[in-house]
Specification:
single chain; 65 residues; mainly alpha
Length: 65
């Protein structure tokens, strides 16, 4: 019985630690800060290098219908 109580105590403590860590991530918005500081600059650098067509160079025909 003592061994089962020890295992149950360890499981509860591990769950409490995981819950505390997830709460800290949520409360301080750590996932959003990580995305903003690390991932977004990589995406901006990638998408700024892409070739795009100039929408102003496309002809516009008013009478075409």
């Amino acid at each position: 019985m003592r061994k089962a109580f020890g295992i149950l105590t360890k499981i509860v403590l591990i769950c409490a630690a995981v819950y505390g860590a997830l709460f800290a991530v949520f409360f301080f918005d750590l996932d959003g800060k990580l995305l903003f500081r690390k991932v977004e600059p990589l995406l901006v650098k990638h998408y700024d290098k892409m070739e795009r067509r100039d929408p102003l160079s496309v002809g516009y025909d008013v009478n075409k219908a």
